[in-house]
Design a protein that fits this description.
By secondary structure, this protein is an alpha+beta fold. The protein is built from three helices and four strands. It has one domain.
């Protein structure tokens, strides 16, 4: 069995059909264990579709009743190191100026506050 990381994307839409200027888009990073990439993709799609709905009528967008709709798999890859403490799930390489990169790093307190 192989571990994969998968970005699942869903959107929250108003039930009345009115489109807000901006909708909520959820991007969820999940880990999936499967025999191969095709099986992992299907498992991801099944899981994403299972997350569709209105949370028993409690989901809202701009104070209006809403529903979450699964859009699909955005990206997936292999977790080469397996799963465990400090395992690398995903890496991204980009080119940027050192100054610009430094401004993208939040402080310790900002990170801790975002988890409350």
């Amino acid at each position: 069995m192989i571990w994969y990381w998968v970005w699942l994307v869903q959107i929250t839409e108003r039930k009345d059909g009115l489109e807000p200027e901006k909708s909520e888009v959820w991007k969820n990073l999940v880990m999936i264990e499967a025999e191969n990439a095709a099986a992992a993709y299907e498992k991801a799609m099944d899981h994403g579709r299972s997350e569709t709905g209105d949370v028993q009528g409690s989901l809202t967008l701009d104070s209006a009743p809403a529903v979450a709709r699964f859009l699909g798999v955005q990206e997936m890859g292999i977790m080469h190191e397996g799963v465990g403490d400090l395992c690398e799930i995903l890496f991204r390489i980009e080119r940027n100026s050192p100054l610009q990169v430094q401004t993208q790093i939040p402080t310790r307190q900002q990170i801790l506050d975002s988890l409350k």
